[in-house]
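DM between two lab members

TW: hey, do you still have the (S)-2-hydroxy-acid oxidase entry open?
JB: yeah, one sec
JB: this one, 367 aa:
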Amino acid sequence: MEITNVTEYEAIAKEKLPKMVYDYYASGAEDQWTLQENRNAFARILFRPRILIDVSKIDMTTTVLGFKISMPIMVAPTAMQKMAHPEGEYATARAASAAGTIMTLSSWATSSVEEVASTGPGIRFFQLYVYKNRKVVEQLVRRAEKAGFKAIALTVDTPRLGRRESDIKNRFTLPPNLTLKNFEGLDLGKMDEANDSGLASYVAGQIDRTLSWKDVQWLQTITSMPILVKGVLTGEDARIAIQAGAAGIIVSNHGARQLDYVPATISALEEVVKATQGRVPVFLDGGVRRGTDVFKALALGASGIFIGRPVVFSLAAEGEAGVRKVLQMLRDEFELTMALSGCRSLSEITRNHIITEWETPRHLPKL
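TW: and the structure you got?
JB:
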């Protein structure tokens, strides 16, 4: 059966993957209300398309932190990709590079920063968890920089791991043939079996709960890479992030895997964008499955979006070719949405191109 959209890869991945692995990728925290809401909130935003505009040429290119990319669709950090496919992060890196976009490598990757760099050219960011042992953090950041990574995406919503009940039921742990490659030489690469979630136990043992804004400033003293703060959901924190020297903000609820009953990222986006007042770019991840979703995020002020689960599901289904296809399908859908909305470049996508269900007609532009 021919795959015609991104969502169809999930069922194929579910069939192919061991239950423990599929559940790890697919699940959210607790009641999974936010997991559903990340999708549902997009469905409550409608278009106000403009017609009779010459859309014979459409330009989707953009720049992120000064790097030119082919489209505002990038790859989010997702952990342990070799659980999905033997080529794991190598395949994802090659697919992102072929699509002319950015890949973010997870701290908890099953391939190291050096291995991913060895796949060839490409713009890559590194997602960072701050360990209790700061020497480990320093070493890792320096390795990423040396390997040619261009920015740090600092995850700030995980002082403790969210309660993911399927991981508890499955006693989730990293399969024995795999390691967290970036930590292999530091005896931090293995995850012990636990009587709940092996990952939750690992986080409790290794990740620093004291992490605070001063650490964002500390990070800037050990690297010249720009820092994106990933996991911001409020205007207040967006303002503090800028004061702390962040080069950009990623509006994220960690794929609905941390605190349940936070808003969908698309619902939190506008508040964050308004708070930044254009001082730094704002990005979004969480729930993007269609080109229409990408357009909606840009109309609400995002500079670009990141996709997570669609990458691991397509990777499980078809390896590198699957990830390439997901990026191509989203690109094609987004281009079509732009054309049918009357937008020829990203700068032409405005707030007036959408209507949200919480708006009354008085919010709409005066005729």
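TW: got it. The chain has a mean pLDDT of 95. The chain is about 40% helix and 15% strand.
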